[in-house]
Amino acid sequence: MIVNVCPAAITSATPERVWSALTAVERYGEWMDAKFVSADPPGPVKPGQIINLSASSLGRPWPVTIEVRNVDPQHRWIDLIVHVPFRIDNHEHVTLTATKEGGTLVRFN
């Protein structure tokens, strides 16, 4: 079964500030409710990178692996595949769009 949900949010933070948080893989745990474990290769987000996190639920840790498929800094989007337990794979296309007020519209498609 395929389920398509496209959450979006507007923040007062500038696109540059949001992009900085989105590309700093060691900060992924801050906005994914998980603990950052490692990234291979280390450093800012890049195509081919594997990011490992640990999320807690039901009284135990669960592994979460993120594959970075593609990154476009100029247009501020990232393609990811998030692998969670029970063989669930989330294909994410994260985009940032500047708002007229100077904030950022963040979309997960």
TL;DR of this structure?
With 109 residues, the chain is mostly beta strands. It contains 2 helices and 7 strands, in the order βααββββββ.
Order the strands across the largest sheet as they lie in space: 1-7-6-5-4-3-2
CATH topology: Alpha-D-Glucose-1,6-Bisphosphate, Chain A, domain 4
Give the mean pLDDT: 92
Q: Find the count of extended strands (DSSP E, 2+ residues).
A: 7
Portion of residues in helices? 10-25%
Shape call: globular
Low-confidence segments, given as residue ranges, are none
* SSE ordering: EHHEEEEEE
Alpha carbon gap, first and last residue: 17 Å
- Main sheet record: 7 strands, antiparallel
| Structural class by sheet pairing and helices | mainly beta
Going by CATH, the homologous superfamily would be: START domain
How would you characterize this protein structure?
13% of the residues lie in helices and 50% in strands. The chain is mostly beta strands and 109 residues long. The chain has a single domain (15-108), classed as Alpha-D-Glucose-1,6-Bisphosphate, Chain A, domain 4. A hairpin with a 5-residue loop joins strand 6 and strand 7. The mean pLDDT is 92.
